[in-house]
């Protein structure tokens, strides 16, 4: 890493750490920002880098949320009784119970969806292009419906999460730190991953899967790993989000296909898919626009969002980063040979 | 669940009720599905906003009925208005995403879906609305089986439209142009077909069909700005299962899906109806994929 | 592979810049406990989303009461007169958003007095937040019984809990059965409920009562939220012929049930459902809605009164006059107005803006409003106001149970719709 880029990384980290202290009233919103960053990054691994556009990554988010909830509650109480509509039991988690539950919950919330991703890969990854997209959307909807019908986890009534011990202010900061940590870890991991041959392989799958197979690439293995990586981080995000929100239920909180599920895609496209920083930029821009429209354009926020998606998709395909790359290629280390009497060598694209 | 199956065994007349309900529901799905299949087959655009076009048609019908026009009569002006709307959307949005990759078109129509839902919500409010057809119902088997006349009419209309579409595509010049473009756009262009007009026409016809479906739905059930997704999902399931070019298959699949939903609702419980639809989608996709894989393997 | 790391220096700058922009827009927190002469109450409520109709009913109720109280001189605390005002946010009918927005209302806007959201799900998400920050909330639109088993000290609910909505129907059925010489435990129940916290609580109330009288439940379906077709469920009811049919699925559920019951020729001697008024059953379906029993938190014929609105009938007249888009007053609106009255009363008794004093004042509430009697249990729910059953007779809602409040006798059994 160059010195300049290291400084910038540290600056961002510092801004991230300072934010909840500078604007304490917005801590929870900022935590959601980090979740968005994580959403965009994990989506890009599948969609941007590998060319498998998933509309159902939100499944892992919801799975993580529910697994964590069940673990947190189940360690101390009977889950079925806890979620029952009647005869609600008096609930009181000690600090130790809460933290162990949370830690174990987050851990399992990462592992569980990863395993599910591996299984789903085996089933769905034979589908190509739009069929894969529709198939994953179907999985997400099915997950929501089935969870709604399962009364052990509360069904449509949802689950009230255990309350965070510790005074007001502490809770927000704790989860903010956790979300930021998750997003940063995801970034570091993906950054490393994209510097290995793994990324070459998945890019090859994106560019031409049949040829890649013909060249001897075990595409199935790579596809499964890519999806599992996404699932791992999404599960963690789900667990944290569920605890932060305090009350979870299947259709809108855990498996919000039409909101978060699509936001993932929109953010990445906005920023420029297939790059490391594109999703992050996209997430930032998207998040900012969303918060602004929610506050100042109440009633019109979704229209603004819909229009943004349309404009982005129709007129601004390559996203912010792609657009910048085209305009100022030298910023990205791409050398465009403009000497008139030579055949223009476009340089390698990142 | 077994109790419910027993009912069907002990009193077979209820099978008829389920069949009739299912087929009338399926007929409406069929309408929505062939519009989708038409657009998908010709332009490769997968219109995620299909259900929202349907809702819009329903609301236009509602608005016209508030001015005293009977819903059945309103179908014609609604179809015309939706046709025009479809043309407009094609020009503004669809035209630019046709050449792009398939996922992009999915996302563009998704953005359109969100926008349309919200505009409908702002204009008409979030209440569910329903239209009175003023028709009665047929009672059969001593009142054991009831079917409203409007459902029978809807079924008839779907058949008529299906036949009309098939004839249009087979016999008319424009129909041939559409089929040519679907097969190979470049070749069609070389042969002088104005593919741009073909695409616009296809999309607008779809929009009109959705409009008609919307008015029917408002008469049989309810419309609400956010209910479009239920129809979009089912249309996708039907088209994916039946394949793109095969209109008779689309109808058969749609009717089948309608009946299957009724049975799953009866036997398993209404909460599993949506899950059944989605589960079916996944099954079909996976089955398709295994077939393709076997095909690929056999080629090797 | 190396290039894109270098070049993204600009990218990073963009990210930092955007983050700072968000911060700048966020601005500094405003302390809005009482600005000058205005007491600001806060509410995250369903302005959009699937409960937007009910959210509108509730917020119209809130606003109507605020306007009336302000017209009457506002609230006097220690000799100073304050007007009331409400700051709204849209929670899009989503619990997660409700919780987030309440954090914002309390932390950023500094508001210390909360009016509840619409719906049990959003209220369930809101209660832990207000509890954590020790901010009192008066809610009148979240009826789930499970809200009152957690020992919340800062939440006060003016309405009757959800399990009481349709339970009186079963009581009534038992009474009517015995009067006509039938054995109550021979009665069969067919029911369908939407799969959401409120409706499932209503269901539990019915299940508990059915168990008490030993009645058998023969159809028990859940309606998924996005479907507007229950014909499969109704076909089952046609086959099994229950004596009592109950539905709860918010406005959409009532509309769908009434229409499809007529279409499929389904009937029972007792038919009951929630949300009849918001579904506008009498205007939409006319004769097909006759005989349906509708629980309500409030009816304009009840004999409650207070100093702000007068009698229930006075409130009814005034609300309809001020809101021409309503043909009847939905109880969500009446509840909303009641909640604001409770706050005003608490301010008056506490003579303070301090949240702890107000919490204690709220806990000690013992008043009659046009909406009903208000007295809170230790858990926060209103134990002084029963649910009332009305029946649609001749296109009007008529109170039929509990018998001591009845204006007319109940029509039983319900006649089939032609």
The CA-CA distance between the termini of chain C, in Å, is: 75 Å
Adjacency order of strands in the biggest sheet of chain C: 1-2-4-3
Mean pLDDT of chain C: 85
Q: What is the strand content of chain C?
A: 15-25%
* CATH architecture type of chain B: Orthogonal Bundle
Largest sheet of chain B, if any?
A: 2 strands, antiparallel
Which geometry of chain C do the CA atoms define? globular
Q: Which residues of chain B sit in consecutive blocks of at least 5 with pLDDT less than 50? A: none
CATH homology superfamily name of the largest domain in chain C: Response regulator
Assign the CATH topology of chain B.
Answer: ABC transporter involved in vitamin B12 uptake, BtuC
Strand order in the sheet with the most strands of chain B: 1-2
Number of strands of chain C: 18
Q: Mean pLDDT of chain B, nearest integer? A: 86
The number of E-state strands of chain B comes to: 2
User: What percent of residues of chain C adopt helix (DSSP H or I)?
Assistant: 40-55%
Structure annotation, total helices of chain C: 13
- How much of the sequence lies in strands of chain B comes to under 5%
Keywords:
heterotrimer; A: 350 residues; mainly alpha; 15 helices; B: 300 residues; ABC transporter involved in vitamin B12 uptake, BtuC; two-stranded antiparallel ribbon; 3% strand; globular
Task: Offer a quick outline of the entry.
The complex is a heterotrimer of chains A (350), B (300) and C (418). By secondary structure, chain A is an all-alpha fold. In chain A, 70% of the residues lie in helices and 1% in strands.
Describe the overall structure.
The complex is a heterotrimer of chains A (350), B (300) and C (418). Chain A is 70% helix and 1% strand. Chain A is built from 15 helices and two strands. In chain A, strands 1-2 form a two-stranded antiparallel sheet. Chain A is globular, with a radius of gyration of 21 Å. The two termini of chain A are 16 Å apart. Residues 344-350 of chain A have low confidence and may be disordered. Chain B is mostly helical. In chain B, α10 packs parallel to α12. The longest helix of chain B has 31 residues, at 13-43. Chain C has two domains: 34-162 and 301-375, Rossmann fold; 164-299 and 388-405, Response regulator (Rossmann fold). Helix content of chain C is 41%, strand content 20%. Chain C contains 13 helices and 18 strands. In chain C, α12 packs across α13 (355-363). Chain C starts with a helix and ends in a 17-residue tail after the last strand. Chains in contact: A-B, A-C, B-C. Chains A and C meet through α1, α2, α6, α11 and α13 of A and α1, α2, α4, α5 and α7 of C.
């Amino acid at each position: 890493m160059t010195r300049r880029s290291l400084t910038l990384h540290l600056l961002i980290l510092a801004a991230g750490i300072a934010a909840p202290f500078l604007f304490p009233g917005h801590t929870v919103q900022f935590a959601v920002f980090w979740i968005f960053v994580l959403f965009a990054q994990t989506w890009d691994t599948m969609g941007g880098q590998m060319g498998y556009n998933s509309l159902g990554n939100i499944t892992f988010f919801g799975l993580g949320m529910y697994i964590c909830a069940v673990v947190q509650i189940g360690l101390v109480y009977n889950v079925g009784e806890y979620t029952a509509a009647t005869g609600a039991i008096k609930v009181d988690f000690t600090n130790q119970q809460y933290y162990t539950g949370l830690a174990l919950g987050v851990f399992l919330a990462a592992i569980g969806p990863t395993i599910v991703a591996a299984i789903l890969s085996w089933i769905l990854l034979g589908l190509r292009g739009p069929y894969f997209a529709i198939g994953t959307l179907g999985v997400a909807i099915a997950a929501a419906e089935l969870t709604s019908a399962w009364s052990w986890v509360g069904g449509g009534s949802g689950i009230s999460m255990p309350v965070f011990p510790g005074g007001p202010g502490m809770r927000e900061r704790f989860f903010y730190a956790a979300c930021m940590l998750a997003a940063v870890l995801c970034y570091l991991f993906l950054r490393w991953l994209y510097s290995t041959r793994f990324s070459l392989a998945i890019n090859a799958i994106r560019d031409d899967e049949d040829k890649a197979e013909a060249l001897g690439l075990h595409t199935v293995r790579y596809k499964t790993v890519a999806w599992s990586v996404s699932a791992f981080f999404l599960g963690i995000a789900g667990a944290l989000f569920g605890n932060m929100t305090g009350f979870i239920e299947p259709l809108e909180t855990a498996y919000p296909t039409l909101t978060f599920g699509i936001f993932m895609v929109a953010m990445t496209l906005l920023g420029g898919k297939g790059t490391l920083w594109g999703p992050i930029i996209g997430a930032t821009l998207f998040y900012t626009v969303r918060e602004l429209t929610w506050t100042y354009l109440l009633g019109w926020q979704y229209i603004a969002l819909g229009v943004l998606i349309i404009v982005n998709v129709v007129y601004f395909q390559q996203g912010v980063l792609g657009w910048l790359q085209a305009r100022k290629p030298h910023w990205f280390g791409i050398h465009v040979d403009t000497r008139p009497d030579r055949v223009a060598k476009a340089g390698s694209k990142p | 669940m077994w109790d419910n199956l027993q009912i069907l065994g002990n009193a077979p007349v209820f099978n008829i009720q389920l069949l009739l309900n299912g087929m009338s529901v399926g007929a409406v799905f069929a309408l929505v599905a062939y519009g989708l299949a038409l657009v998908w087959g010709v332009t490769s655009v997968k219109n995620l906003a299909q259900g929202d076009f349907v809702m819009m048609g329903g609301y236009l019908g509602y608005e016209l009925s508030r001015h005293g026009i009977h819903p059945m009569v309103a179908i014609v002006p609604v179809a015309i208005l939706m046709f025009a709307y479809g043309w407009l959307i094609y020009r503004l949005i669809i035209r630019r995403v046709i050449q792009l990759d398939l996922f992009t078109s999915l996302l563009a129509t998704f953005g359109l879906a969100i926008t349309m839902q919200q505009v409908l919500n702002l204009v008409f409010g979030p209440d569910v609305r329903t239209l009175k057809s003023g028709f009665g119902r047929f009672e059969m088997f001593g009142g054991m089986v009831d079917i409203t006349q409007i459902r029978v009419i809807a079924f008839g209309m779907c058949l008529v439209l299906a036949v009309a579409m098939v004839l249009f595509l087979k016999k008319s010049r424009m129909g041939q142009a559409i089929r040519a473009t679907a097969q190979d756009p470049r070749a069609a262009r070389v042969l002088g077909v104005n593919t741009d007009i073909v695409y616009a026409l296809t999309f607008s016809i779809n929009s009109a069909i959705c409009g008609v479906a919307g008015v029917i739905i408002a008469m049989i059930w309810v419309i609400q700005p956010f209910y479009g997704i239920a129809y979009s999902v089912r249309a996708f399931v039907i088209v994916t299962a039946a394949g793109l070019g095969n209109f008779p298959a689309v109808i058969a699949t749609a009717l089948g899906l309608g009946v299957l939903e009724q049975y799953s609702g009866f036997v398993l419980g209404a909460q599993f109806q949506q899950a059944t639809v989605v589960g079916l989608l996944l099954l079909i996709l996976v089955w398709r994929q295994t077939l393709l894989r076997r095909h690929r393997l056999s080629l090797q | 592979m190396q290039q894109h790391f270098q070049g993204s220096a600009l990218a990073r700058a963009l990210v930092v810049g955007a983050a700072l922009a968000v911060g700048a827009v966020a601005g500094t927190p405003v302390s809005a406990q009482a600005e000058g002469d205005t007491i600001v109450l806060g509410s995250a409520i369903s302005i959009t989303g699937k409960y937007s109709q009910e959210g509108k009913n509730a917020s119209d109720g809130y606003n109507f009461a605020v306007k009336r109280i302000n017209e009457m001189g506002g609230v006097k605390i220690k000799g100073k007169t304050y007007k009331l005002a409400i700051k709204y946010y849209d929670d899009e009918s989503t619990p997660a958003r409700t919780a987030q927005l309440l954090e914002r209302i309390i932390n950023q806007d500094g508001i210390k007095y909360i009016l509840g959201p619409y719906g049990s799900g959003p209220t369930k998400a809101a209660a832990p937040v207000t509890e954590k920050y020790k901010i009192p909330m008066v809610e009148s639109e979240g009826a789930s019984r499970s809200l009152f088993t957690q020992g919340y000290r800062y939440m006060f609910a003016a309405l009757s809990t959800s399990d009481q909505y349709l339970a009186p129907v079963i009581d009534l059925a038992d009474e009517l059965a015995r009067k006509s010489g039938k054995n109550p435990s021979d009665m069969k129940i067919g029911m369908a409920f939407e799969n959401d916290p409120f409706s499932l609580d209503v269901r539990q109330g019915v299940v508990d009562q059915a168990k008490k009288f030993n009645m058998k439940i023969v159809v028990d379906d859940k309606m998924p939220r996005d479907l507007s077709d229950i014909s499969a469920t109704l076909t089952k009811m046609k086959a099994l012929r229950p004596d009592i049919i109950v539905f709860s699925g918010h406005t959409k559920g009532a509309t769908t049930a009434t229409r499809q019951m007529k279409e499929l020729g389904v009937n029972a001697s007792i038919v009951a459902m929630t949300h009849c008024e918001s579904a506008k059953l009498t205007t939409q379906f006319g004769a097909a809605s006759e005989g349906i029993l509708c629980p309500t938190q409030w009816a304009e014929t009840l004999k409650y009164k207070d100093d702000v609105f007068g009698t229930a009938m006075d409130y009814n007249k005034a609300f309809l006059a001020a809101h021409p888009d309503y043909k009847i007053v939905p109880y969500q609106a009446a509840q909303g107005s009641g909640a604001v009255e409770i706050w005003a009363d608490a301010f008056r008794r506490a003579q303070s803006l301090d949240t702890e004093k107000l919490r204690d004042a709220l806990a000690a509430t013992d008043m009659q409003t046009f909406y009903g009697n208000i007295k809170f249990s230790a858990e926060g729910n209103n134990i002084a106001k029963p649910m009332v059953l009305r029946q649609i007779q001749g296109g009007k809602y008529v109170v039929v149970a509990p018998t001591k409040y009845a204006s007319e006798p109940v029509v039983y059994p319900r006649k089939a719709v032609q």
